């Protein structure tokens, strides 16, 4: 009897030992592996806010204003960075409060020069007038800049452009943002632009000629409104036809 009890105790001890061993084994396998440290990547710099709109004028020899421009300007430049030893893309707003305007006006050409002393940035607009058609356009843009991180002075120009087309005596207006591609490494973004390089009267803008972007922006609400009006008309006609048929079904025989 004692021998039988001893065997039972040994069996129970073995079972308990086996249970503890299995529990520790399963617990070890359930431990999740150590999570790898997340890798962080530097986010690209956020683009600058919408540029402030500046007022720029050019006067001729007798002090009369011969060119007027109101616009926000944004320079999109690709240049060689001295600190990074690589080519970088940068977008910079032209600040009107530190920008001076000058230029010249002739019978068929006009020049607007903007100089930002703080950043040593010089931006020049060249306008041309076709006397036969009485049409003008932006024919050239020149930019030179010396910024702190530039490994060498930056320059870009193009004298074969055809932007901002207007009629003599009228101003060219484009409230929407538009991008003027100048060179491979330089483009110009304009905001709320109104410019008139020829035919100013009493230092005032002539009648505005809207750009295509503004016309398209105005056309969308008109199309949507016309579509909604057509839908309402269709529903109304269908309702009247259905009502007429229902009354016809109750006529006295």
Specify the number of helices. 2
Order of helices and strands: HEEEEEEEEEEEEEH
- Radius of gyration over C-alpha positions, nearest whole angstrom: 37 Å
In angstroms, what separates the terminal alpha carbons?
112 Å
What would CATH call the architecture of the domain at 54-214? Beta Barrel
| Extended strand count | 13
Mean pLDDT over all positions: 82
CATH topology of the domain at 54-214: Porin
The coarse silhouette is: extended
Strand composition percent: 35-45%
CATH top-level class of the domain at 54-214: Mainly Beta
User: Portion of residues in helices?
Assistant: 25-40%
Contiguous runs where pLDDT drops below 50 for at least 5 residues: 1-6, 26-31
Largest β-sheet summary: 7 strands, mixed
The secondary structure category is alpha+beta
Write the layout of secondary structure elements.
Blueprint lengths: L1 H29 L23 E6 L5 E17 L4 E8 L5 E7 L3 E8 L4 E10 L4 E11 L8 E5 L4 E5 L3 E4 L3 E6 L2 E11 L11 E3 L1 H37 L5
Parallel strand pairs: 10-13
Antiparallel strand pairs: 1-2, 2-3, 2-12, 4-5, 5-6, 6-7, 7-8, 7-9, 10-12, 11-12
